[in-house]
From TrEMBL, chain A:
GO terms for cellular component: plasma membrane. Keywords: Cell membrane, Membrane, Phosphate transport, Transmembrane, Transmembrane helix, Transport. The keyword NADP does not apply. It comes from Micromonospora sediminimaris. Belongs to the binding-protein-dependent transport system permease family. CysTW subfamily. Its main location: membrane. Pfam families: BPD_transp_1. GO terms for biological process: phosphate ion transmembrane transport. The chain crosses the membrane at residues 36-57, 87-113, 125-151, 157-174, 203-224, 274-295. This is Phosphate transport system permease protein PstA. The lineage of its organism: Bacteria, Bacillati, Actinomycetota, Actinomycetes, Micromonosporales. It is a multi-pass membrane protein. InterPro entries: MetI-like, MetI-like_sf, Phosphate_PstA, Phosphate_transprt_permease.
UniProtKB/TrEMBL annotation, chain B:
It is a multi-pass membrane protein. GO terms for biological process: phosphate ion transport. InterPro entries: MetI-like, MetI-like_sf, Phosphate_PstC, Phosphate_Transport_Permease. Signal peptide: none annotated. Part of the binding-protein-dependent transport system for phosphate; probably responsible for the translocation of the substrate across the membrane. Its main location: membrane. It comes from the Bacteria. It comes from Micromonospora sediminimaris. The lineage of its organism: Bacteria, Bacillati, Actinomycetota, Actinomycetes, Micromonosporales. It is found in: Cell membrane. One of its GO terms (molecular function) is phosphate transmembrane transporter activity. Residues 87-314 form the ABC transmembrane type-1 domain. Belongs to the binding-protein-dependent transport system permease family. CysTW subfamily. This is Phosphate transport system permease protein.
UniProtKB/TrEMBL annotation, chain C:
GO terms for biological process: phosphate ion transmembrane transport. Keywords: ATP-binding, Nucleotide-binding, Translocase, Transport. Residues 34-273 form the ABC transporter domain. One of its GO terms (cellular component) is membrane. The gene is pstB. PROSITE patterns: ABC_TRANSPORTER_1, ABC_TRANSPORTER_2. This is Phosphate import ATP-binding protein PstB. It comes from Micromonospora sediminimaris. Pfam families: ABC_tran. SUPFAM superfamilies: P-loop containing nucleoside triphosphate hydrolases (SSF52540). GO terms for molecular function: ATP binding; ATP hydrolysis activity; phosphate transmembrane transporter activity.
């Protein structure tokens, strides 16, 4: 290395003040104030989460037992003991059926948006309306299924609940799957096309497998969300006190509905059951969420 | 498999061959059909609910939304179904929710995009994800059994301190059970924070690095950089996020039904019980018949129309903000 | 050196091109406003630039050239602590400004950037009006007095005033690329820094806009010290008094490190380079 102009030290005297003290008090204060406010905002989000988690664990843990998960629901709120067996059965069956309906439909909808519709006007309308549908209140979806299914077949059933949950899940699955399909590099599509594969074959054998982990995790998050929905269950599935394994015949119940019904009772026994049901529900929901996160972090396609 | 065994094609045909071309067409029509399902469901919701609510609309006319009395079983005369009190409750609880949730959400989004050291970013995102994952009925349960009783002394204190002030004092009136507009708003705030945060964060993260660098290179502090470079770029997107949060708050049913108190009430007093449209439906649907059911479904129609309107607007605002951002980057 | 300074600052602006060829005897150390002493820049554990030692002379244009990936922009950003916001970025060695180490513990990066401004590769005006872009730095720095006068002065110095004086309230994004870049220069000089760092300021511009910026760069040496990174050797030869040539080396561990090869007066570096690698590069035998 050649240096034609060698460095020379120069005394600091006479140089500008570069220390923090040179920043005007007002500016420094505003900056600190803003930083502090941001930290407070984060704390304000952490506190309720911590409190809810703690309370549900403490109160729900108190009543948790194998018999709580197993036994029938007492048909009087006042009575002590009993369990949430029927509600757990209902939640798993109803949510599972909803997923069976919504996920395939949603994925195909996403395939339309990303592989066929792209930026066409119709695709843009469907995209916009999917986002809008995500915002439709679940109670309205409950009313819709009540009118168009329960009134039609003449009784409240678990399947009606599954229909309502499926309607709530559908737009979420569509949009999250579309995001995942978009991450699949075009090179893959072109490579498959260049081998002479038809578009539908390319989509099903190349594009979909490439995005499947992301689609799975997005769908599981939608399932987790649906498992906690309450209002439509109350309106369209009715209530039972012993397990009903048949979604198409007779009323059913689910954990969120049981939490709601028991929470507003003045009786300690009912409130305990509500906490126990809340703990059970949170474990189920978090289970789905954690599996989803695991899948998406483990098998994610690298973004760009 | 060996290629040599394949019989050579007599003559290559480059025109579409019937069966697989048909497969392509069937497949594309099928996916289009599933896409159209979204539009079909939205359309059906509108048609079926309006039809089913018609007896109530017919009986009440415009009074359905201007009347504050809701009396399904009057001692004498016809039942009265006026949604105004519930619309008021929906509006007040949602606005309280936004008042608390918006600053907190913007703060968390700034934390995630500008402030957090890398090792805190992951945990902070997890907190927001978990907040979003907790079912609303669990927040409702916590709200009615823990938060509402715990807040009564605080409400009482605020009433004692601010209650005497003219005008402002009317907001801090006498305190009842702790189940009131304020508690409903606070619980709603917790529930809409994740959605506002996640969209706001996305918007902030699209602010070009170059803009932030430009501000910093002029000697801006971090806060001045945020004000000068981040906020102007993301204003539209944040507005959209707030509207989405509003839509979510208005439609939230269960948690509000548990903590708002269940009274047909229009009052400035935030510590008084009230009710919201969504909450009334779920509370009274089980015991309703005839016109009463129609009126509850009518509340659903109003709710549907309002949330769809707000969501469409919000989506358009967010999309436009995103498009403009992309335009200015190029 | 004093005579040189005089020579340069009083030179008529018509003869702005190739000032590097006319400077001589710039070895005087007391005219250096900044000094780099054994400066290395790390991203995490990766050493992006290794041991850089060079002066930045007052009221002169110093160019940094070299193939892409040689670390010239990284060094430039180290001069006003713009690497700070990048997680894991770290600087070792001394970056002296009037003898004061910019990375000393009590130094505030905000004060540093206020005195050592920066113009970026792509024009990046804020999505505000032309006026507000220039006034932004003044406002945050609480510069008192008539804002309008300061804005006009900065825009005039940036040779943009005549083009925009009738549309100060219009969005800056409506300007052409070259105008936007001059606006960014105006925005930078409005806060009256001593040094202006320019990171390939013309790479996104057409030749005419580039020529205007080059003229402007020479004008600015009346008041400012300029450090410019460029991938364009002709540009370095045209506008700079001193040139630093960087290159990328691959070490035993197969890692690339940027490295300063040669620093000298521009005329000397381009006509009589001391290092073989410099010669290869400027004669086009490299990269």
């Amino acid at each position: 290395m050649t240096l034609t102009a060698p460095p020379a030290a120069r005394p600091a005297a006479g140089g500008p003040d570069l220390t923090r003290a040179a920043l005007s008090g007002r500016r420094r204060f505003t900056n600190h104030l803003a930083t502090a406010a941001i930290w407070v905002a984060v704390l304000l989000a952490v506190i309720p989460l911590a409190l809810v988690t703690y309370t549900v664990l403490a109160k729900g843990g108190g009543v948790m037992s194998l018999s709580f998960l197993n036994e029938d629901i007492p048909n009087s709120y006042r009575r002590e003991g009993g369990g949430m067996g029927p509600a757990i059965v209902g939640t798993l069956l109803i949510t599972g059926m909803a997923a069976l309906m919504a996920i395939p439909l949603g994925v195909f909808g996403a395939i339309y948006l990303n592989e066929y519709g792209k930026q066409r006007p119709l695709a843009r309308v469907i995209r916009l309306m999917s986002d809008v549908m995500t915002g439709v209140p679940s109670i309205v979806m409950g009313l819709f299924i009540y009118i168009s299914w329960v009134l039609l077949v003449g009784e409240q059933t678990g399947f009606a609940g599954a229909l309502a949950l499926a309607c709530l899940m559908l737009p979420v699955v569509i949009r999250s799957s579309e995001e995942m399909l978009r991450l699949v590099p075009d090179e893959l599509r072109q490579a498959s096309m260049a081998l002479g594969a038809r578009k539908w074959k390319t989509t099903l054998t190349v594009v979909l497998p490439a995005a499947i982990s992301g689609i799975t995790s997005g769908s599981l998050l939608a399932v987790a969300r649906a498992a906690g929905e309450t209002a439509p269950i109350i309106i369209v599935t009715g209530i039972v006190f012993s397990p009903n394994w048949n979604l198409f015949d007779g009323s059913n119940t689910a954990l969120p509905a049981q939490i709601f019904r028991n929470a507003s009772q003045p009786f300690p026994a009912a409130q305990d059951r509500a906490w126990g049901a809340a703990l059970t529900l949170i474990v189920i929901v978090l289970g789905f969420t954690i599996i989803a996160r695991f899948i998406s972090s483990r098998f994610a396609i690298k973004e760009r | 498999m060996t290629l040599t065994n394949n019989p050579p094609a007599a003559k290559p045909t480059l025109t579409q061959r019937g069966s697989s071309a048909l497969g392509d067409r069937v497949f594309s029509w099928w996916t289009l059909g599933t896409g159209l399902l979204v539009l079909a469901i939205l359309g059906l919701i509108l048609i079926t609910t309006v039809r089913e609510a018609w007896p109530a609309f017919d009986a009440m006319g415009l009074r359905f939304i201007t009347e504050r009395v809701w009396d399904p079983n009057p001692a004498t005369g016809d039942a009265i179904f006026g949604a105004l009190s519930f619309a008021y409750g929906t509006a007040v609880s949602s606005l309280i929710a936004l008042l608390f949730a918006v600053p907190v959400s913007v703060g968390i989004a700034l934390f995630l995009t500008e402030l957090a050291p890398r090792r805190l970013r992951g945990p902070a995102v997890t907190v927001i994800d978990l907040l979003a994952a907790v079912p609303s009925v669990v927040f409702g349960l916590w709200g009615i059994l823990v938060v509402a009783p715990a807040l009564v002394p605080i409400y009482q204190w605020m009433h004692d301190v601010f209650g005497g002030i003219p005008l402002l004092g009317r907001l801090f009136g006498p305190v009842g059970s702790g189940r009131n507009f304020m508690t409903a708003g606070l619980i709603l705030a917790i529930m809409v924070t994740p959605i506002i945060t996640s969209i706001t964060r996305e918007v902030f993260s699209t602010v070009p690095r170059a803009d932030k660098d430009a501000a910093l290179a002029l000697g801006a502090t971090r806060w001045e950089m945020i004000r000068g470079a981040v906020f102007p770029h993301s204003f539209g997107g944040v507005v959209g996020a707030v509207m989405l949060g509003l839509g979510r708050a208005m439609g939230e049913t269960i948690a509000v039904a548990l903590v708002i108190g269940g009274a047909t009430n229009i009052t400035a007093n935030l510590f008084a019980p009230g009710n919201s449209m969504a909450a009334v439906i779920v509370q009274q649907f089980g015991e309703s018949t005839g016109t009463f059911t129609a009126a509850l479904i009518g509340l659903g129609v109003v709710l549907f129309a309002m949330t769809v309107l707000i969501n469409v607007l919000a989506q358009v605002v967010v999309r436009r903000a995103e498009a403009r951002m992309k335009g200015s980057v190029a | 050196m004093a005579s040189n300074d005089t020579n340069l600052t009083t030179r008529p602006s018509v003869a702005v091109h190739a000032p590097g060829t006319t400077v001589s005897g710039a070895d005087s150390a007391n005219a250096s406003v900044m000094q780099l002493r054994d400066v290395s820049v790390y991203y995490g554990s990766y050493e992006a630039v290794r041991g850089t030692t060079m002066p930045i002379q007052q009221n002169q244009v110093t160019a940094m050239i070299g193939p892409s990936g040689c670390g010239k922009s990284t060094v430039l950003r180290a001069l006003n602590r713009m690497n700070d916001p990048i997680p894991g970025a770290r600087v070792s060695g001394d970056v002296l400004f009037h003898g004061q180490d910019l990375y000393a513990k009590d130094v505030d990066p905000i004060q540093v950037r206020r005195r050592i401004g920066m113009v970026f590769q792509k024009p990046n005006p804020f999505p505000k009006s032309i006026y507000d872009n220039v006034a932004y730095g003044l406002r945050i720095n609480g510069i008192k007095g008539r804002l309008d006068d300061h804005v006009e002065e900065a825009l005039t110095k940036a040779a943009l005033w005549d083009e925009v004086k009738d549309k100060l309230r219009k969005s800056a994004l409506a300007l052409s690329g070259g105008q936007q870049q001059r606006l960014c220069i105006a925005r930078t000089i409005a806060v009256k820094p001593e040094v202006i760092l320019m990171d390939e300021p013309c790479s996104a511009l057409d030749p005419i806009a580039t020529a205007k910026i080059e003229d402007l760069i020479f004008e600015l040496t009346n008041d400012y010290t300029i450090v410019i990174v460029t991938h364009n050797m002709q540009q370095a030869a045209r506008v700079s008094h001193y040139t630093a040539f960087f290159t990328a080396e691959v070490d035993e561990a197969q890692e690339r490190h940027g490295r300063l090869v040669e620093f000298s007066q521009t005329g000397k570096l381009f006509t009589n380079p001391a290092d073989k690698r410099t010669e290869d590069y400027i004669t086009g035998r490299f990269g």
